[in-house]
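User: Hey, quick favor. My workstation is busy. Could you predict this chain's structure for me?
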Amino acid sequence: MGRNCDYYYFGHHSFGLITMNEAPVQQPKKGGKIWHWILTIILIIVAALLGYTAGQNAAVQPTVSVEKATTLEQNYGDVPPEIFPQDFPFEVGTLLVQSLEKTDKETGITHASVAYYSQKSIQENADKFIAYLNQNGWTVVNNTNSNGVYNIYATKSRNSMSIQMFYEEGGGGLKVQVVYTVMK
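Assistant: No problem, here it is.
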């Protein structure tokens, strides 16, 4: 890096002022995409955990609506919520352990979530879900299998679908949780 030194004289004294010829070079920021993916995965996990918690607290019962100040919640018992894609490839012979629909009345955003236990492996389920999403116009944004949790996140138009599969501790089997988000 080169330096220039300009001298100024005041009376009998000279003062040197060092100036720089070169401007500092800005390095491009790295990791922007990585942080985007990490944030996306965290949001998916939070949505799945919220659905899981709600499923643990919900008894199997007929459709029940609960209206809060800004949210309408409906528990569909053992059938999928009405807005859930009718052609979604549920596993034949399984029962839903969670079936909820939550609509934010201010934004119009609806989250429909279902959960069930599968008799098939994680990979069999993942292959089935990826094929379904690809054949039905969804764009798979994230497809990861890490630390025993398989996550698939896809978008279609303004809507999204998050699928999470994992083996429950205590021998509960392979749990499949799906959150379908409809933007209005």
